[in-house]
Amino acid sequence: MDEQDVSIQRFLDHDLTPDERVQFLQQVDADPGLRREWLNLELVVAEAARLPRIAPSTHFTARVLAGLEPESKSILDRFVGWVTAPRTLQWNLSGAIAVASVAIVAGAGLLRLVPARIVEAPYSSPPAQTVSLEQAPTTYVRLVLVQPGAQSVSVAGDFNGWNPSRASMTRSDGGVWTTTIRLKPGRYQYMFVIDGKQWLADPLATEDAGDGFGSNNAVLDVGTTL
After folding, report:
1. Is pLDDT above 60 for 82?
2. What is the pTM assigned to this prediction?
3. Within 10 A of 96 (CB to CB), how many other CB atoms are there?
């Protein structure tokens, strides 16, 4: 694992300080290869978090417990095991009387130790869960805007109902605002919202479209690959 892999892993594990996170994001903006590797790992983490947790079956649990080393038994447990263990005996009258006496004494002792009533609760194994591996493909898209004088910047578009409060951007050194959003393949229109009142089309967008009110929205065309 090289230094870049370590940085990505620490970023995903939230082990970086705020300054280290800013430095990492600046490296991501400057290095397309690092950005592609990081976004791929982000996608893997997001998909893994959506997998259901499946409890092991009772048969699996029983096999595991059967493979464990038995705990050391007490003297009483060994005595009960010896009395109740099946064995072949050569019977005669004196032997039968001796065994019967031992059984009576052992039975009287066990009656004092065993609870008066044992209730067994019925158990039904949970229904098997079906995991669907066919998920709609998604892509992580990173948006960047340079606005040193802004106090807050967010993104509004048809992918979030044009609600700027649902996609806030993070400021880094130099007044660079960034955010990463997860989108399915398609064609989207969006705008930046500066300080909650100024709407601005993305200057880095390669395409725009009229909004029907005399202004233009930035257009984002998301494919199935980064």
Report:
1. yes
2. 0.41
3. 11
